[in-house]
Write a structure and sequence with these properties.
about 180 residues, 6 helices, alpha/beta, elongated, 2 domains, 4-stranded mixed sheet, Dockerin domain-containing protein, single chain
Length: about 180
């Protein structure tokens, strides 16, 4: 373990940018999503909206799901064929900006809507998925150091997705690990 910590200190590194795939419909919802993502984005860990893929976000129900909302509901998730939609209640119990943050916290599986939680959730170094990046994650990475992925089987610790666990993955981990 000392060798792994020394390697972390020696290699250093920087985190990469993250694109969040969502398709908000309309200017009001697009601005709300961009503002929400901007509130968890940092200079060191920029988070941007990519509208090419991902679930569709609407204000109110659309088409077959245009049934009225329960007044206490912030949003609902609807599956229509192959399309997944998150529909926000236009008369919901909280303002739209807050509703977007609350629902995207669940959708993106973040522990909270903070820059720190986003860095952990999007960074990939939380290998055991316990909501923190610690020595148990480093142990998982080092257990697979030098390994190569088998076809269609992800490799724990392959943070950059190149099919092997090596110094690049250790650098990515070290950029996210904060003792």
């Amino acid at each position: 373990m000392r060798r792994a910590l020394a390697l972390l200190a020696f290699l250093g590194g920087a985190a990469t940018a993250v694109n969040v795939n969502l398709r908000p419909q309309g200017d009001v919802l697009t601005r709300a999503v961009q503002a929400a993502l901007g509130s968890i984005s940092t200079k060191d860990f920029p988070i941007t909206l990519d509208t090419k893929t991902g679930p569709t976000l609407t204000l109110g129900g659309v088409g077959v799901s245009s049934a009225p909302f329960n007044p206490d509901v912030i949003a609902r998730v609807v599956q229509v064929g192959s399309e997944r939609r998150i529909e926000f209640n236009p008369q919901g119990p909280v303002p739209l900006q807050e509703a977007v943050k609350l629902e995207l916290t669940k959708e993106l599986k973040l522990g909270a809507w903070t820059p720190e939680a986003a860095a952990v959730g999007f960074g990939g170094a939380d290998l055991n998925r316990d909501g923190k990046i610690d020595l148990s994650d480093l142990a998982l990475l080092m257990a697979n150091y030098g390994q190569f992925a088998k076809p269609s089987t992800p490799l724990v610790g392959d943070l950059n997705g190149d099919g092997k666990v090596n110094d690049i993955d250790v650098r990515l981990f070290s950029a996210q690990y904060k003792p």
